[in-house]
Amino acid sequence: MATVRRPILVLGATGRQGGSVVKGLRKIQWPVRAFVRDPSDPASIALREASAEIVHGSLEDSDTIASAMKDVHGVFSVLPANLSADDEVRYGTLIADLAAESQIDHFIYSSGASVGDKLTGIPRFDAKPRIEAHIRALPLTATIVRPMIFMEMLVRPGFGLEEGRLISLIRPDHSIQLTAVDDIGKIVAAMFVDKARFAGLTLKIASDRVTGHELESIFTEAADKPITYARFSDDVLAANGDLAHMASSLEDGPLAEHVDLKLMREINPEVVSLRSWLRGAGRTQLKEALHRGKV
Ligand SMILES: NC(=O)c1ccc[n+]([C@@H]2O[C@H](COP(=O)([O-])OP(=O)(O)OC[C@H]3O[C@@H](n4cnc5c(N)ncnc54)[C@H](OP(=O)(O)O)[C@@H]3O)[C@@H](O)[C@H]2O)c1
Fold this sequence. Notes:
This protein is α/β, with parallel strands linked by helices.
C-alpha cells in the first residue's frame, strides 16, 4: 500500500526559494501546504493550481503560523530579504520554536552561504548565524541549507548586461559558486525524503562553479554577442558595505569554501550548470537583461 505523506508547510511560498521548494515537492507528489499573505495574489493562485493547499497568514501573526503547522510532516523556513536584523532573528527563532512545539518530523531552514563559524559583530550579517544557533539548540530534527549566490542575481539590473558587460564580485581568475534557484527546491525535496541522512546537517548548496573568465565566455555564448567580464571597481565596493562583505567572503571567507558539486549531483541528479541554466530556465531573464532600457 502506498504511504500517505503528511504535507510540508512551505513559508515564503510565493517567493523564489519557497516557490522552488513547492515545485520540488510537487514534482515528487509530496503534498504541500503553502503559507501566503494574500490568497488572491496571482502567485498564490498559481500555487493552488499546482495542487498546493493554501493557508493564509503572516509572519507578524504567530497564531497563523502555529495553526499552519498542525499535522504537517515538515516545515521549510525561509525569510524575506528586506527585514531588519532584529525582525529576521525574531521571526526565524519564532518559526523554529513553533515547529519544535508542534513536534513536526523535519525542519529545514534556508540560511545564507556567507555564514561562517564566527559572528561578525554586524547585526545584518549575524542574523542568520544566530537563527542557526537557536535551531541547533532546540529539540527539533533540523537541516540547515546555505545556498550559494543565485544565478538569477547575475541577470538583475545593475550588472551591465544591457551594455554588453557583466560586472560581478570576483576577480577574473577567481571562481564563484552559483545556485540555480530551481535546484534549491530539488535538493530540499530530496532532504525531506531522506530525513535520516540529512537530519542534523548544515550543508552549503550550489549548482556550478565558474571563474570570471568563464563567466565572460559563457555569457558571450548565451547572449550571442560579446560580453566582457569585470569585477566591481574598488570605489564601488568601498561605497557599498554589503557588496564589499560578499566580495571579501568570496576571496577568503565562507563564500570561497568549495561546495562538493559531486555530492550536489548525487542529491539532485538534475543540477544545472550556468551554461544550461542560461539556455533553459534563465533564458527569458537573460533576454530581458540584454534588452533592458531599449525600445
Ligand atoms: N544566495 C543568494 O544569492 C540570495 C539572493 C537573494 C536572497 N537571498 C536570501 O534568500 C532569502 C529570501 O528568499 P527569497 O529570495 O526566496 O525571497 P523572495 O523571493 O523575496 O520571497 C519572499 C517571500 O516571503 C514572503 N513574505 C514577505 N513578507 C512576509 C510576511 N510578513 N509574512 C509572510 N510571508 C512574507 C513573500 O510573500 P509575498 O509574495 O506576499 O511578498 C515571499 O513569498 C533571504 O534570506 C535572503 O538573504 C539569497
